[in-house]
Amino acid sequence: MENLRLNVALLRRRVPNLTSAAKSVGLRPATVSNLCTGKIPLGRSEVKTLVALADLAECTLDELIIRGEKVEMIETKIKALDLFAPVAKGGTIGLVARPGMGQLVILLELFHRLKSEGYKAVFLMPEGNYPELDDVKDFADVIATSIDQAYEELAQLGKSNDVLFAADRSNVVSGEIYDLQYRLQAIGVDSITTFLLDLTGQAVDEDLPYGPLETLLQFDADLTARHLFPAINPIQSTSSVLEGAFLDQNHLLLQQRAQKLLRRYRELRSLVQVSGMDRLPASEVQTYKRGERLEAYLTQPFYTAEAFTGQKGESVSIQETLEDVRKIIDGAADSRELDELQYIGKLN
């Protein structure tokens, strides 16, 4: 079952309201979401689940399952993203966060970073008054005020450029985004990577707030409260790029080791918060401290925030990130103080 993945684009097109549709046939929306992003490998899914999805999409299993097509990763040089939820080139990326967690900051940072790689950025302004969107004009090449204008701009730019397109969840709920993606596919424009954010914060309470996704970026309230940014949840965030054969096996192995460490660290941190370090079993102290250091290392200064933080933005290649994460997990950073690891680029 290697090199197999769901045809997420087909599901988006055929089953716009996948949450309701999944529930109506007895499927858990979370299971469907995890299959779409690759968090649950297709080889571990039940046949009846795939058959039910094919029935919903009114397609055959051969149409639902894509064989042998590689999901390309956009290297952002943002450590937490590239490690846990690589951005799928040409895919749809959903940002799930409440206001104040930094979803807009990370979107604008991606616009800024990827422009130097030749990408063009298009932002579809939602209806309503959102003062926080004033800064978007400084980072997007095109600001569209209607879905039709967005289509015209994307159709033109997409002929000769890789394009980043961002829109609010309100355009997803209306069905406009899916119609837009279908129209672009119909004219052969497949170079659009779509980012969906939620300015209201309602997406946090939905099972499938954006429908099928290639990459899910789940933001973390605890990291936000402790001012550890980007506040990407390392356990819940995921991507179809991480599916078996689509990713370098060293990356996949380290991603899994990092998740295991951070998952246990989070459990131990709950105990420490209640009872203090003295109640931590001696056998778990090393795990706690390494998890703490890895969490600190995954913070990162952003170029777009330099004026506010006074810190110079940092870029870290995926190979440097993987090497640093391996060192932290294996104990090479055990002697480093915690504040030496927060808001740095790569390890010295």
TrEMBL record:
GO cellular component: proton-transporting ATP synthase complex
Keyword Membrane: yes
InterPro entries according to UniProt: ATP-synt_VA_C, ATPase_a/bsu_AS, ATPase_alpha/beta_chains, ATPase_F1/V1_b/a_C, P-loop_NTPase
Intracellular or extracellular location(s): Membrane
One family name in Pfam for this protein: ATP-synt_VA_C
Listed GO MF terms: ATP binding; proton-transporting ATP synthase activity, rotational mechanism
PROSITE patterns linked: ATPASE_ALPHA_BETA
Source domain of life: Bacteria
Entry keyword set: ATP synthesis, ATP-binding, CF(1), Ion transport, Membrane, Nucleotide-binding, Translocase, Transport
Stretches of the chain forming a coiled coil according to its record: none
Chief site of localization: membrane
Record-annotated ATP synthase A/B type C-terminal domain positions: 247-315
Similarity comment: Belongs to the ATPase alpha/beta chains family.
Name by which UniProt lists this protein: F-type H+-transporting ATPase subunit beta
